[in-house]
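User: Good morning. I'm curious how S-adenosylmethionine would be positioned relative to this chain. Could you predict the structure with it bound?
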Amino acid sequence: MTATPAWPPASTPRLFVETPLHEGAAIVLEGAQANYLGAVMRLKPGAPVRLFDDASGEWLAEVADAGKRRMTLAVTTRLSPRETVPDLWLLAAPIKKGRIDWLVEKACELGVARVLPVLTQRTVVDRLNLDRLRAHMIEAAEQCGRTALPALDEPRPLREALRDWPAERMLIHADEQGGAPLADVARPGPAAILIGPEGGFTAEERTLIAAIPAARGVSLGPRILRADTAAAAAVAVWMAAAGDWKQPAT
Ligand code: SAM
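Assistant: Good morning! Here's the predicted structure, ligand included:
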């Protein structure tokens, strides 16, 4: 059926697929996605599904064939182009499993364009499962309506990540020792938020950060926040002050 304001219904399942989408494409789903649509949602041939591929936007498809372990979907109409997300990066030191999963999920929901894990002197987590983190971001994107997934980088030492830092990208260092309120510092344009590990940054790292011309030390209030809370709070404040939570000027 053709897309209209009333179609597809709001309850239509929404999935990310790796396969490029276009009108007339046949998308074959297996494993967890086929199980979700077939066994959990009990979709039958003709049922609508929304798909996005992180490249061409969001598409309406319908179930063409519903097997026990395999679903085939026929792509019909493009519902929207790929969105433009604000140019905000999040540099965060890896923290323990569970908390880092929450952090990337919230980063995706709140609209971050790129997540860069940075290894610091007090980072205690030495391995990151990027596949698991990406799966959390995909789930968050499916749920929140994103059509563009955040990029997710391999972890890099902080010094390397900050080397040749572009002058035009404000580096917002969330500093529990104090700074200007983030809402006063944030302005539209390329930006990155830098969050330390559970133990914070060392004096040596603080000197390294402060030496970057684009760096601004900011406060997130008088309380010491956990790293994951600090990341979500900082992204939310930036989005409200400089990102796409603002109504476009009329
Ligand atoms: N080791 C520090 C201490 O005990 O004082 C706390 C580090 S905090 C758990 C982890 C990171 O969250 C910090 O490196 C900082 O980037 C950020 N953070 C936490 N609270 C903050 C605040 N009130 N203002 C700015 N950044 C904050």
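The pocket of S-adenosylmethionine is lined by residues 174-176, 195-196, 198-201, 219-221, 223-227, 230 (CB under 6 Å). The first helix runs from residue 31 to 40.
Let me know if you'd like a different ligand tried.
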